[in-house]
Amino acid sequence: MGYRSFYNCTALQSVTLPQGVTSVYNGAFANCPNLTSVTLPDSLVSIADYAFGFQSGTGGFVPLPNFTIYGSAGSAAEAYANKYGFAFSTAIPTPTPPPSQPAASEPEASAPAASEESVVPTPATSADADQNKQSKNSQDSDMLLILLAIGGGTILLIIVGVVIFLIVRNKNDRTKPAIQPDALPNKTDSNGSKTTEQYPEIYCPMCGTKNTGRYCSLCGHLLR
Ligand SMILES: [Zn+2]
């Protein structure tokens, strides 16, 4: 705390120096007429003359009335209090600085805090809702993909089935006429010879089987 850091600071009502401050220079908090208390850390080892509790008066600094110093027993703060006859207390007010300032700042601080708390959860929940929505959407799209995959698989299966069915039927259609043209036997019957001997031997151009009938005996291809 430098020389007259808070000199003439009329707004100051109480001061709490944080742990770690080691020295307070001359008149740092002097002439703060509304200052009623300071809370000083154990780390403070050097307190210059008139650092706290004085205001300008006739012929120099005069002590503030009703000024209290809070600190640990045996600390530099206590020594300073004893030196100038200030009230000293080890009952350090826990909620940082003494009443007046926190009382003034507490509602202010708690009100924003409360509104912050009420505001923060709202975006949080809405964000959660968004996330839920998103995850639900992604779940929905996942489901859609699965359904599409199933649908696509089903359609593929149907197509494959239809193709197989068509192939089989086509084969049947080919083989059937091979049997049906047993109109030939009629001829053969009339001629008194077998169907197979009706025609000269011929090789099926589709499968290469040697045939004597009108149709390939293996693949049903029309030969003549
Ligand atoms: Zn054939």
What does this structure look like?
There is one protein chain. The chain has 224 residues and is α/β, with parallel strands linked by helices. Helices cover 43% and strands 12% of the residues. Among the domains are: 14-100, no CATH class; 181-224, no CATH class. The strands form four sheets. It has a four-stranded parallel beta sheet, with helices on one face. It has a two-stranded parallel ribbon with strand order 2-4. Strands 5-6 form a two-stranded antiparallel sheet. It has helices at residues 76-84, 100-119, 121-179, 183-191; strands spanning 14-16, 23-24, 37-39, 46-47, 54-57, 60-63, 68-70, 87-89, 202-203, 210-211. The structure holds zinc ion.
Write the layout of secondary structure elements.
Layout: E1 14-16, E2 23-24, E3 37-39, E4 46-47, E5 54-57, E6 60-63, E7 68-70, H1 76-84, E8 87-89, H2 100-119, H3 121-179, H4 183-191, E9 202-203, E10 210-211
Parallel strand pairs: 1-3, 2-4, 3-7, 7-8
Antiparallel strand pairs: 5-6, 9-10
The structure holds zinc ion (ZN).
Number of helices: 4
Structural class: alpha/beta
- Low-confidence residue ranges: 108-122, 179-197
Strand order of the largest sheet: 1-3-7-8
C-alpha end-to-end distance: 119 Å
Quick one: biggest sheet? Answer: 4 strands, parallel
Strand content: 5-15%
Tell the overall outline.
rod-shaped
Radius of gyration over alpha carbons?
54 Å
**Bound small molecules, which ones?**
zinc ion
Element string (H = helix, E = strand): EEEEEEEHEHHHEE
- What number is the mean pLDDT? 75
Helix content: 40-55%
Number of beta strands: 10
